[in-house]
Specification:
513 residues, mainly alpha, 3 domains, four-stranded mixed sheet, 6 strands, 60% helix, 5% strand
């Protein structure tokens, strides 16, 4: 499956440009500095592309590795604190929920970023609990914090520091790290972080870091790229997207919940810090709250481990309400594709409507995913109320794995054909020509990655409506506009070439031809 705009294509394109330019220090888009992200994830992608070629598999492969690392880590940490059965429950709960399943099949940064944050906190807890080699664990805690910074920037450090502060406040200062542990954490952090910062300052001066930090502040203080949502956005995302572990974990937030292990306190703190911080943030995207999934799965595993599954009526209501809605959506999904008269007149997006007319229609097997999901929903509930939580968790892990894998084959091609598929088709038609490619009136990164660009467009990544490319009159240029924008039909020198779905391809010959 093609990478999806924006994030997946954006990140893969940065890795591709690293390989082409052999500049592995500077993150680039359109062969110009990209101020938003540090380089570690792109190094991983570039390394993967060197092994497997520049393709979708290589772009997503680092997250496959970190998916396995995350599952192994949940098992190992769970086993350390509460035994092997608990570790197995935690691993199964995590893999048995919707968003975590989808999460590691993508090429976004957050799986790697979250793993480093989580490991930093785990090592910090080990260090302050006065285990053997506490200084070693403090160094590791700092090292993982530094790697999180090198993956996505200062927000990882902010999350870790806030969790530590909240823990100190909630325990009235107990567990404050000794000076040698603080020194170890600082040294561990500086090792990876300062290598990159030092290299940037040496080769490019302070300009890059200044713009990088300004962007990080803007990301928190105002909606970036129109990703503004209401305050409760992430609560809904986690409740529905992390079904069923979100429903099971609700019991762990009750004051009468039995688990009093100190690590449970840390997991609750991590959950609340993340979800409150990103609810306050003006920029809200689904995966911004993905760091809550690890502590939430831990708390759900605690509930299962203590045998208190769906103990409260609100849990049972939400279980059947959300599970039932998902089942119905899967069972009757073919109505959406085969009976457009029921809903298409409500859609105002002209590009979507145009793409729908040549959409890839999913096979008749699609409702079978609803049958499998419904069977898992009922059987897992039956096992849970019969006090067989481990078997219930196994059923959910198998159900979610089977359903989501099937949806990748049965549903995702249709979704792509409604969204970016026509755009990528147009881009690939002209990728081998010695021409510049622009998207006109909408933002995309598809024309860079799938257009296999080797030089920069002199203008920005995309052109707003009404603005043509500057200083490129001597080059052959292709413009791609989106329905209902036919503005280029009336511009002198532009030739309409082809329409694909909701997208239109124009050609502008160089002056003199």
């Amino acid at each position: 499956m093609h990478l999806f705009d924006w994030d997946e294509i954006n990140f893969a394109e940065s890795a591709r440009e690293m390989i082409l330019t052999k500049d592995y220090l500077t993150v680039q888009i359109n062969f110009k500095p990209f101020w938003e992200k540090p380089p570690l994830f792109f190094w991983l992608q570039a390394g993967s592309m060197q092994l497997f070629g520049i393709n979708e598999f290589a772009a997503r492969f680092p997250n496959v590795i970190f998916g396995f690392l995350t599952l192994i880590t949940t098992f190992a940490v769970g086993k350390r604190y509460a035994g092997e059965r608990f570790g197995l429950l935690w691993m199964l709960v995590y893999i048995g929920s919707f968003l975590p399943q989808i999460y590691f099949k993508t090429s976004i940064i957050d799986p790697v970023f979250n793993y480093f944050i989580f490991m930093s906190l785990v090592c910090y807890v080990e260090a302050i609990n006065e285990v053997d080699r506490p200084v070693s664990f403090s160094l590791l805690s700092g090292l993982f914090a530094g790697l999180s910074f090198l993956t996505k920037g200062p927000v990882g450090i902010l999350l870790i520091v806030l969790c530590v502060l909240v823990h100190l406040i909630s325990t009235k200062g107990r567990g404050f790290p000794a000076f040698k542990l603080l020194t170890g954490m600082v040294c561990g952090f500086l090792l990876p972080a300062m290598i990159w910062i030092g290299a940037e300052l040496y080769f490019h001066g302070a300009a890059f870091l200044q713009k990088f930090l300004i962007y990080q502040v803007e990301l928190f203080t105002k909606p970036v790229a129109s990703h503004g949502q209401p305050f409760y956005y992430h609560f809904i995302v986690v409740l529905i997207g992390c079904f069923p572990m979100s429903i099971v974990a609700l019991a762990a937030f009750n004051k009468r919940f039995g688990s009093t292990h100190s690590f449970s306190r840390w997991m609750k703190i991590l959950f609340w810090v993340v979800i409150i911080l990103f609810s306050i943030s003006k920029t809200k995207i689904v995966h911004y709250s993905s760091m809550t999934w690890l502590p939430l799965s831990y708390l759900a595993a605690c509930v299962l481990h203590e045998g208190k599954v769906l103990e409260y009526n609100i849990q049972k209501i939400l279980y059947w309400l959300i599970g039932g809605m998902i089942s119905l959506a899967l069972l009757f999904s073919t109505l959406f594709f085969h009976y457009p008269s029921l809903w298409l007149h409500y859609i105002k997006d002209a590009a979507f409507i145009a793409s729908y007319r040549q959409m890839i229609v999913p096979t008749v097997l699609l409702p079978a995913t609803g049958l499998v999901f419904t069977a898992g929903l009922v059987y897992a509930y039956f096992l849970a109320v019969k006090s067989q939580p481990l078997k219930s968790a196994v059923v959910w892990a198998l159900t979610q794995t089977g359903v989501i894998t099937a949806l990748y084959y049965l549903l995702l091609p249709s979704i792509e054909s409604l969204s970016q598929g026509p755009l990528i088709t147009l881009v690939t038609k002209v990728k081998n020509e010695p021409a510049l490619i622009y998207t006109y009136g909408f933002k995309s990164y598809a024309h860079f990655y799938y257009g296999e660009r080797t030089t920069a467009n002199s203008s920005n990544e995309y052109l707003p409506a009404g603005q043509l490319a500057a200083d490129e009159s001597r080059r052959l240029i292709y413009y791609i506009s989106k329905e209902p924008n036919h503005e280029l039909d009336t511009v002198k020198g532009f030739q309409f070439i082809l329409k694909e779905g909701g997208y239109r391809l124009y050609k502008k010959e160089p002056i003199g031809n």
